Amino acid sequence: MNDMTPTNLSGSMPLAAPFVRVKDLRVRFVSREATVRAVNGVTFDLARGEVLCVIGESGSGKSVMMRSLLRLHPKKRTVIEGSMQVGEHDIGAVSDRVLSKLRGSTISMIFQEPMTALDPLYTIGDQIVETVRRHEGLGREAAWARALELLELVRVPSPERRLKAYPHELSGGLRQRAMIAVALSCRPSLLLADEPTTALDASVQIQVLVLLRKLQREMEMSMIFVTHDLGVAAQIADKVAVMYAGRIIEYGTVADVLNRPQHPYTRAMLASTVKDQERGVQLEAIAGSPPDLRALPDGCSFLPRCGYAKPECAVAMPPETVDARGHMARCYRVGVEGQRLAFSAPAIQPSVCTNASQLAAARAEMLGRQA
Ligand SMILES: Nc1ncnc2c1ncn2[C@@H]1O[C@H](COP(=O)(O)OP(=O)(O)OP(=O)(O)O)[C@@H](O)[C@H]1O
């Protein structure tokens, strides 16, 4: 496998103290018909100035986890447990009034589709001016000067003219830059990015990524970046979290996770996608499908798709195994050898276990052994 670190856009060493602390976060959506367990015990720390890329298949809980940091879920149907600390703020406990002050100023978010964030009825300039006046109390003139400065910062050509444009008058790439300008207008400490470059052409995508990484570093923002694209993660991340069925199943530095993947899911994902490319690589489907979040199994949620399953995998979710470098994986086949995580493959490659009766037999055998 290629070492992807030399082309990583990361250059700065993040500062040590965690700025974001998420501990045992659980999110479920409750309706009369079912309970969807979208996030099932997510824990991570993020230092100031550090970029965490969250990768995983569709439905693995990436967006739900991230949106929880802004409490964007429908209040009535959502149960959130665990803790989320951003700077000195306990996100789960702050009042709605404090939260609305934090949104856009301390924590900002950018989306795949800029029209989610931009108001079609107002010019780009009005939207930036409104945000900085509301959060920072700037006068009109100073706010316009800031808006101009921001469009220059995100390299929008002819910024004076673009300030007076409505979102629909801009190209996709310029709209994305305008959304980034609005998101950065109050100099947030934490930027949440939900696949912000996925909809763009490859060349525009890399320009926007380079720009984001540059601004993130200059402004010493922490950033959580959700992506399906392993190449994007390789380019932009300091740390990588791999999510599966609402859990982080592997976590570590970008080099550790992408060059020395330990969890069978991460290994399968990389084996099926990353060849010689360094970017523009989407996650390919792995045979089988993720579990139903309305009825999660007791054991490892990846078991039905895993080629390395052991009987104990059917009984309980594997605990976290962490090495001296902080590289973590949740798999019974992973242990620490010396100071590093090490995956122990069986002598004979087992066939993928996809059969419900095989699972039931494995579980029965394991429970019998424990009795
Ligand atoms: N408001 C909601 N009510 C019920 N279920 C929801 C809600 N929001 C998300 N979900 C479910 O939670 C699960 C996780 O969704 P999430 O959007 O976090 O996945 P994701 O990993 O970000 O996927 P994608 O990459 O496709 O965006 C999915 O099964 C989704 O259908």
Automatic annotation (TrEMBL):
Keywords: ATP-binding, Cell membrane, Membrane, Nucleotide-binding, Transport
Domain ABC transporter: 20-270
Molecular-function annotations in GO: ATP binding; ATP hydrolysis activity
Topology with respect to the bilayer: Peripheral membrane protein
Subcellular location: Cell inner membrane
SUPFAM superfamilies reported for this sequence: P-loop containing nucleoside triphosphate hydrolases
GO biological-process terms attached to the record: peptide transport; transmembrane transport
One cellular component term from this protein's GO annotations in UniProt: plasma membrane
InterPro entries in the record: AAA+_ATPase (IPR003593), ABC_Ni/Peptide_Import (IPR050388), ABC_transporter-like_ATP-bd (IPR003439), Oligopep_ABC_C (IPR013563), P-loop_NTPase (IPR027417)
PANTHER family: DIPEPTIDE TRANSPORT ATP-BINDING PROTEIN DPPD (PTHR43297:SF2), OLIGOPEPTIDE TRANSPORT ATP-BINDING PROTEIN APPD (PTHR43297)
Similarity field: Belongs to the ABC transporter superfamily.
Protein name: Peptide/nickel transport system ATP-binding protein
UniProt source species: Kaistia soli DSM 19436
